[in-house]
Design a protein that fits this description.
GO terms for molecular function: carbonyl reductase (NADPH) activity; L-xylulose reductase (NADPH) activity. By secondary structure, this protein is of the alpha/beta class. It is about 45% helix and about 15% strand. The chain has a 7-stranded parallel beta sheet with strand order 3-2-1-4-5-6-7, with helices on both faces. α1 crosses α8, α3 runs parallel beside α4 and α4 runs parallel beside α5.
Length: about 250
């Protein structure tokens, strides 16, 4: 990947990464962690103001940033944005949502909204990225899954359904792309305090449920999830494909 802009140090020096859902939470943390490893970062999300602030922080690290104001559910437009990137070595397929409901209360509109973003958009963003990477003969796709892609969680039947699907999709992608130089993996975090989870984590009954199940006794940090993403994105994980890396504090161990 020589000849590209970027710092000369770091595990991803000079490479281009795309992060979806980059304006906040895990996406923002992943974008900064990739930049810290020398990657130039394309930032895709709907909120221009937040993306511009983040892009400034990334450029302060001595690498390039590109702002892509896009709803990833706009499949054709998102694919066109990806095709227009100067290069693409890493995709962090992070955009997602949740709408906690009891299974008996789930309505079709909520199901469609969560599934459309978490699965359909993730699938076609990954497809567009993979096409670029196959042409180049190299790349790493990291799909943001969840511990909810491995076990059932309270009030999360739709979310679990989409994340189990992302896990299976990632394995099948890895099989199809084997031999092309493109690796595909998942990162599966436990609960992290972000804009999406903060309100629920303030509820005592739910927080007790979370604390009882994370064996290490605390929430995960954004930086800890981002570190797993950086590992899978880099050549340090050159022999890793078709798997999932939990960052779950032991939730899945019992």
């Amino acid at each position: 990947m020589g000849g590209q802009a970027g710092r000369d140090d770091g595990a991803l020096a000079g490479r281009w990464a795309l992060v979806t859902g980059a304006s906040q939470g895990l996406g923002r943390g992943c974008a900064l962690a990739l930049a810290d490893e020398g990657a130039n970062v394309a930032l895709m999300a709907r909120n221009r103001e937040k993306l511009e602030v983040l892009a400034g922080e990334i450029r302060d690290r001595g690498v390039e940033a590109r702002v892509l104001v896009r709803d990833v559910s706009e499949i054709d437009a998102a694919a066109a944005d990806i095709a227009d990137l100067p290069h693409l070595d890493v995709l962090v397929n992070n955009a997602g949502t949740n709408a906690p409901q009891s299974f008996l209360d789930v309505d079709p509109e909520t199901f469609d909204r969560v599934a459309n973003l978490n699965l359909r958009a993730a699938f076609f963003v990954a497809q567009a990225a993979a096409r670029r990477m196959v042409e180049q003969g190299r790349g790493s796709i990291v799909n943001m899954s969840s511990q909810a892609g491995h076990v059932g969680l309270k009030l999360r039947t739709v979310y679990c359904a989409t994340k189990f699907a992302v896990e299976g999709m990632s394995k099948a992608m890895a099989v199809d792309l084997a031999g092309t130089g493109v690796r595909v993996n998942c990162v599966a975090p436990t609960f992290v305090r972000t804009e999406m989870t903060a309100a629920q984590l303030e509820q005592p009954e739910f927080r007790d449920y979370v604390d009882r199940n994370i064996l290490l006794g605390r929430l995960a940090e954004v930086s800890e999830v981002a570190a797993a993403v950086v590992f899978l994105a880099s050549d340090r994980a050159a022999m890793v494909t078709g798997t999932s890396l939990p960052v779950d504090g032991g939730w899945l161990a019992h």
